Amino acid sequence: MFAAVSSSVTISKANFNILVDDYEKATEYSVGVIDFRMLSPSNNKFKFNVKDTAAANPKFDKFVVEVDMSDYSQEYITVHSKNIKLNNPENLDVRVSGLDKSVVVVGKENDLKQITEDMISVDVDLSLVEIEPGQTITVPAVVTVNNGNCWAYGIYKVQVKR
Questions:
Q1: Who contacts 100 (Cβ-Cβ below 8 Å, separation ≥6)?
Q2: Residue of 22 and 145 predicted with greater confidence
Q3: pLDDT for 107-137, tens place per residue?
Q4: Rounded Cα distance, 116 and 35, in Å
């Protein structure tokens, strides 16, 4: 589980469609979901469309949510090739390249100090990919930090050549 991060919304008052029976139980209302891959100390403001929240107030069209990242920082950590796991069910003869030498890991300073390169894994799934001999394609790479208080920031891709 991730460490708690706090957030605030720029709109101080909004009207929401809530059933009368649910009103007294309502202590929070979701305005959107933040993908942790997109959350860092330098990228901590997110906009959510009011139409997607069932809000009833037509005076505004979006919520701006700012996540308090004041206690967080980021580090660039090298990923070793041994930590790249290839799901290759057809046992294709492929070469994986293009992953930057390091990934961005976000967390509190003390947690970041404990991160080692062996705590970072990269998964590349070729199970749904069609690749012809001599062809190079771009495939998503899922970067995971094996520490519940830190996460990888950004979207990563690799080149796969057959």
A1: 156
A2: 145
A3: 999 999 999 988 999 999 999 999 999 999 9
A4: 24
Phi, psi of 51 (to 5 degrees): -60, -25
pTM of the model: 0.77
pLDDT at 7 over 70: no
CB-based burial, 72-104: b 16+ in 10 Å, e otherwise: bebeebebeeebbeeebeeeeebebeebeeebb
- Distance from C-alpha of 15 to C-alpha of 57, rounded to nearest angstrom: 5
154, 105 contact by CB (below 8 A):
no
Task: Give the CB-side neighbour count of residue 29, counting CA atoms within 13 A.
Answer: 21
Q: Which of 156, 144, 152 minimizes the C-alpha distance to 100?
A: 156
At a CB cut-off of 8 Å and minimum separation 6, what does 145 contact?
105, 107, 115, 119, 120, 151, 152
Read out DSSP for 57-72?
-TT-SEEEEEEE-TTE
